[in-house]
Amino acid sequence: MPLYKLQINGTTREIDVAEDTPLLWVLRDHLNLVGTKYGCGIAQCGACTVHFDGAATRSCVLPVSAIGNAKITTIEGLSKEGDHPLQQAWDEVDVPQCGYCQAGQIMTAAALLKQTPHPTTAQIEQTMHGNICRCGAYHRIREAIKLASTKA
Amino acid sequence: MSTVNKSRRSFLKSTLLTTGGLMLGFSWASAGAAAPVVVADAGAAASLGFNSYLSIAPDGIITIFSPNPELGQNIMTSFPMIVAEELDADWKKVKVVQAALDTKAFDRQVTGGSGAVPHSWKLLRNAGATARQMLVQAAAQQWGVPAEECTAADGFVVHTKTGNKLDYGALAEAAAKLPVPKDVKLKDRKDFKLIGKEVKNVANKDITTGKPLYGLDFHREGMVLAMLQRPPAFGTRIKSVDAAAAKAMPGIIDVVQFKNNVAVVGKSTWEIMKARKVLKVEYEKDGNTESSEDHAKLFSTLMDTGTATVRRKDGDVATAFAGAAKVLRAEYECPFISHSPMEPMNFFAHVREDGVELVGPTQTPALARTSVSKLLNIPEEKITVAITRLGGGFGRRLKADYVTEAAELSSIIKKPVKLIWSREDDMTGGSYRPAVRYRFEAALDAAGNMIGYKLRGVGINSGNPTREDNFPSGAVPNLLIDTVEHQSPITTGAWRAPITNFLAYAEQSFLDEVAQAAKKDPIQFRLDLLQKAKTAPVGAIKYDIDRMIGVTKLVAQKAGWGTKKGVSQGFSVYFSHRSYVAQVAEVVMKGGKPVVQKIYAASDCGEVVNLSGARQQVMGGIVDGLGHAMYSKLSFKDGAPQQNNFGNYRLIRMMEIPEIETHFVDNGIEPTGLGEPALPPTGGAVANAIQKATGKRIRKQPFIEDPVFSGKTQAAPAKKMKTA
Ligand code: FES
Ligand code: FES
């Protein structure tokens, strides 16, 4: 099996897996980074969202061989102290229900705010369309993104 | 050590922690039962099997164990809030820990039926108040003053006259040596500082930083992973298995067959998924392999000729219908749907010589244990169940099928194993909300009074798909409710607000039809019926008429019922579990389609414990109810589910949510639960609003399949509504 050197959360991680292994399973099964969640495996729910050179990417369909030197950020690496404006807003608005989807929601939103620091409601909804929250916490997710955008 | 009376189950027990703090165990099994018992050290407490307690450490940190599984209903926050309220604790110093299964210490360690807070409300308050009283007593003794001169607040006992102050941590050791008081005074609700406020989820930080909280995140050194290949269609079984290719795949440890499953055991999820694809399994028929078309026909046949079980009979429906001025009849239908919690099913099991360890997401840890005990013939005492956080449940994790699978596999391969269901496994693996068709009939007299009412429910593995003692029973003199059931190989199970999640839609839609036929405002029509049930009740009923009227009037007022221009309003009210929720949905026409713009909800769940959590439950319930009524359906072909993942099974997304306004009736009665009751009314309110907007009545879920959403629908001419 090929050996990959991945740039994850600012450190280089070496991993020996088959080339078609999705990043999601590399993170979860091999690197013990389980904050990135499995929800569907087919890029339909957003639970597995990470940043690929800053862009929100569904890690469940990203083969490890396609990563190269790209910088990967997972929820564990979004901020050192867990105090990214979105993480703070998530608490302030009290977003999570079961919480399972929330890492993916935050990662999608973080990429949006990086590109568009003050998104409109329509832009938020457009971007977040790919992230399912089965508990239906959508109102607060939207509100928290807006709140974070006023602070960034 | 003081006397320990083991023959009586005690309610409260205090004990010294080895670290010198106060540990107050409360046995949930015996609310208000026998006299309290004091145990003097943690070892004694442990030997009595108390692991359900609040403990106060010398540094003032208060640990409260939360026994019920957390799946997003926010129980890990609301339970401790109740204890902390009566304890007058400093909320910032409260730590919450998920307790493992312990049927000796806890009663009803279940998440389901919106029942946790109603069940434990008094128990938790008593526990907090008892500890508070002991702390006050300890301080009074230390100061040599009467306890009456002392008060407690924010984690301190204060002597009012001198201003002396001691924090709970400093008092815990002395307090633990005191006898546990029998009668404690609970707070007056007007003095609540935490209860009724918006308190944030205690797990927010862990959730937003990606901590390993869920079953799927669980890891144990030396464990293997596994997935099962289950029959692709209900009504089939394994004929032959050729596992050679799968076994030869990299990372695969073993492939084993048990029952109708082929387990692929390996080191990593991806390798297992790949190996599973090259498994060659042949299946053969083992029963009926049903298709959705068969069900449609079956519904029609059984509706007319099925053997019905009578659920309720009042008066004489035949005479009422024969003499009616007007008779209405309509059928409503709901499909199978999947629970699809975001975290698919999974469980860790380690079957050893000397016992079994189970870890994972379950709504019913006790059932998980009994099931494994029966399956493997291992006594329950030798089985432990640790509960992880649940990535949603919606009723799916009330079943223990995925737990016994893991245990059985572990017993075969003799290894600790984490069994994982893929999303496809989860969606096609059964235990669905049952499919049901209803036929409603109403008889009106010349004045528009409903003098007769008939409901027949035909369900596929639905059990009783009616709630015969709910509204409008009690308000109609001649009434007949009966049911017919078809047994199918397709498995079904409780789905958030079981039965009522679709019955309410059908019934509240039909009542709107009747109100229209009677030329009455839909809200006034229901209020008139409720008035009848109050003044001239027919038979026994399970709902509280005044609470139902209360939410109805509140939502009408908040939504400005009948006063708005440019929007079409639809109303619905429902009683489920123990609570009452009324909703008004507002629909506008956009691009030839009805769009739900806003939903108002008025809830009566008794005392609201955590306002933030309560709002979430209402909003989440509405989004859930709307999403599934609008979009979701699981259909079958020859026994095989036709939808298997979120690409072809539609769930509601952010763009599709309406604005939601939540209101609560403030009546001071004890909490009656809120995990489910906000869901049932939504489908009906929305369907009624769509009818008002378009003139079209949607009698089948999912609504999105109705031609009204084709994009060519004309708005119905606006009618002047009478205000309720
Ligand atoms: S798990 Fe990747 S999008 Fe669902
Ligand atoms: S909070 Fe449960 S899926 Fe989003």
Automatic annotation (TrEMBL), chain A:
What are the 2Fe-2S ferredoxin-type domain coordinates in residue numbering? 2-78
Q: What GO MF terms are annotated? A: 2 iron, 2 sulfur cluster binding; metal ion binding; oxidoreductase activity
Q: InterPro entries annotated for this entry? A: 2Fe-2S-bd, 2Fe-2S-bd_dom_sf, 2Fe-2S_ferredoxin-like_sf, 2Fe-2S_ferredoxin-type, 2Fe2S_fd_BS, Beta-grasp_dom_sf, Diverse_Oxidoreductases
| UniProt cross-references to Pfam families, sorted A to Z | Fer2, Fer2_2
For this UniProt record, the keywords arranged alphabetically read as follows: 2Fe-2S, Iron, Iron-sulfur, Metal-binding, Oxidoreductase
Q: Which CDD domains match?
A: fer2
**Record organism:** Cnuella takakiae
Protein name (record):
Isoquinoline 1-oxidoreductase, alpha subunit
Automatic annotation (TrEMBL), chain B:
Q: Mind listing the UniProt keywords for this protein, alphabetically?
A: Signal
Q: Which Pfam families match?
A: MoCoBD_1, MoCoBD_2
Q: Which GO terms describe its molecular function?
A: oxidoreductase activity
List residues of the Aldehyde oxidase/xanthine dehydrogenase a/b hammerhead domain.
209-287
Superkingdom classification of source: Bacteria
Signal found in the keyword field: yes
Signal peptide extent = 1-31
| InterPro entries for the chain | Ald_Oxase/Xan_DH_a/b (IPR000674), AldOxase/xan_DH_MoCoBD1 (IPR008274), AldOxase/xan_DH_MoCoBD2 (IPR046867), AldOxase/xan_DH_Mopterin-bd_sf (IPR037165), N-heterocyclic_Hydroxylase (IPR052516), OxRdtase_Mopterin-bd_su_IorB (IPR012368), TAT_signal (IPR006311)
Q: Which PROSITE patterns match?
A: TAT
Q: What is this protein called?
A: Isoquinoline 1-oxidoreductase, beta subunit
